[in-house]
């Protein structure tokens, strides 16, 4: 009886170790994917910030341009700056949504680990019942 319990414990320890290594590999792969997603979000924010800077330049340029002859200078400047600001806002918000923590969490790994935990519990319970 002692040999069977020791054998079951050794088997369980070996399986848990192998499971842990597999989960670690999955976590590494998923983390790499999430880092790439975060990188895309950062790039979108950077592009949005660059366009926001361009909006400032457009605002300054609009003061000088001949649009002041068609509409009042302040109105031409305000229209061009508002359009550029709206575009910048859209890009920045898109980048921010890519960087939300819920989008970066390794959900597949967490789900797999929960399933594995439940499987281990079931196996331990079954082994205990079988030995007892």
Descriptive report:
With 132 residues, the chain is mainly α. It has one domain. It is built from four helices and no strands. The longest helix has 63 residues, at 2-64. The termini are close together. The model has no long low-confidence stretch (mean pLDDT 82).
List the helices and strands and how they pair.
Elements: H1 2-64, H2 73-98, H3 101-104, H4 107-131
Helix pairs in contact: 1-2, 1-4
The helix/strand series, from N terminus to C terminus, equals HHHH
Sheet bearing the most strands, described? Answer: none
Task: Count up the domains.
Answer: 1
- Gross morphology: rod-shaped
Key phrases:
single chain; 132 residues; mainly alpha; 4 helices; rod-shaped
Describe the structure concisely.
The chain is an all-alpha fold. The protein contains four helices and no strands.
């Amino acid at each position: 009886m002692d040999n069977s319990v020791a054998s079951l414990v050794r088997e369980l320890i070996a399986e848990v170790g192998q499971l842990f290594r597999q989960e670690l590999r999955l976590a590494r792969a998923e983390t790499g994917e999430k880092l790439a997603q975060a990188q895309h979000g950062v790039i979108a924010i950077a592009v949005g910030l660059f366009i926001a800077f361009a909006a400032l330049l457009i605002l300054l340029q609009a003061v000088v341009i001949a649009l002041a002859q068609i509409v009042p200078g302040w109105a031409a400047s305000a229209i061009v700056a508002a359009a550029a600001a709206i575009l910048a806002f859209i890009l920045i918000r898109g980048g921010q949504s890519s960087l939300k923590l819920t989008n970066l969490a390794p959900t597949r790994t967490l789900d797999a680990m929960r399933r594995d935990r439940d499987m281990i519990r079931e196996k331990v319970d079954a082994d205990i019942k079988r030995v007892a």
